[in-house]
Amino acid sequence: VVFLVKGPIYLVCISCTDEPYEALRGQLELIYGQ
């Protein structure tokens, strides 16, 4: 489980794979940038 807090927005990523933390956090950053 990875949490990313951007001001009032909380992004959460739950992965069933063995992806590293950096990869999951990068995906959350991309979602936030949309």
Automatic annotation (TrEMBL):
Protein name (database record): Vacuolar fusion protein MON1 homolog
InterPro entries cross-referenced by the UniProt entry: FUZ/MON1/HPS1_longin_1 (IPR043972), Mon1 (IPR004353)
Gene Ontology process terms (BP): protein targeting to vacuole; vesicle-mediated transport
Organism phylogeny: Eukaryota, Viridiplantae, Streptophyta, Embryophyta, Tracheophyta
Segments forming domain FUZ/MON1/HPS1 first Longin: 1-34
Alphabetized Pfam families for the sequence: Fuz_longin_1
Cited function: Plays an important role in membrane trafficking through the secretory apparatus.
Signal peptide feature range: none
Coiled-coil stretches: none
Organism the protein comes from: Nymphaea colorata
Family that this chain belongs to: Belongs to the MON1/SAND family.
